[in-house]
Amino acid sequence: MIKNICTIVTLASLASCGSIQENATVESSTPTKPKTETYSMYVTNEASLPNCQAANEGQLVYVASNKQMRACQEGKWITVDLKGEKGDKGDRGEKGDKGNDSEGNKISQLDSCQKIVSNYPFIALSSTVITYSNGDVETSCEVTGSKYGIKGSSHLSVLSAGVQNKIYGCTVSYDSFGSETAGWWYFETENGIRKATYNDSTDPADGNNYIFSNADCKTTKY
What are phi and psi of 75, to 5 degrees? Predict the structure, then answer.
């Protein structure tokens, strides 16, 4: 018995009709998997670009040497502009909070002192206190003569306990050599009185205080 049947081919979206013998074996064709192409790749330079042809139409390639993206279009590699057009200027942001002044503030006052220690030959003690416009304080100290010159400094925030209590310190130390004990100096300013103390348990001058008098100091306001 002959029957008319209609076979639907999904892959091609086509319909075809024909006559076959009933109970005959119907062979189904397996759709061919579409060929896939790689449409993006990376090359080191222009010379490494593959041929631009119909098989790779639309392919994108990044060229590392000039940091450009190229596209295969109608047999030619064209440059793809990744930046786009310049956008409209955005709205102005809100004004931020005022930050704390840094060490770059203007100096409002400079107090400098220098003292020659008579009972410790060839020692000159120098102490400087700089007050900035935001209230921060920077102290520096220096000892010259005798062994060799040493100096140091420290910066105190206006919110620190030292500035709040008007107590400023600065420490400098000698380097030790072999078995030699290294001494150190501590410069201190408290309630307007400035002094330097030497510390070295092996030295007769250990614990000696050297107070800077008004004649040793100078104040400059800006």
Answer: 80, 5
Contact 195, 211 (CB under 8 A): yes
| Beta strand segments in 64-136, E | 68-73, 76-80, 107-117, 123-132
**Interatomic CA distance for residues 42 and 80, integer angstroms:** 14
Q: Mind listing the pLDDT tens digit for each residue in 12-34?
A: 343 444 444 444 444 445 444 44
First to last CA, the chain: 119
Total count of residues recorded for the chain: 222
Q: Of 8-17, 119-128, 145-154, 184-193, which gets the smallest average pLDDT?
A: 8-17
Domain count, the chain: 2
pLDDT in the model for residue 82: 66
What is the spatial distance between Cα 161 and Cα 177, in angstroms, rounded to a whole number? 36
Q: Which helix H or strand E contains 170, and what residues bound it? A: strand 167-173
Instruction: Answer whether residue 7 is part of any domain.
Output: no
Residue 69 pLDDT greater than 90, yes or no: no
Residue 54 included in any domain: yes
* Amino acid letter for position 4: N
DSSP-derived letter for residue 203 is S
How far apart are alpha carbons 154 and 65 in whole angstroms?
Answer: 51
Nearest residue to 168 (alpha-carbon basis) of 199, 142, 150, 194: 194
Query: How far apart are the C-alpha atoms of 141 and 195, rounded to whole Å?
Result: 11
Q: Look at residue 161 and tell me if it is in a domain.
A: yes
Alpha helices in the chain (DSSP H): 161-164
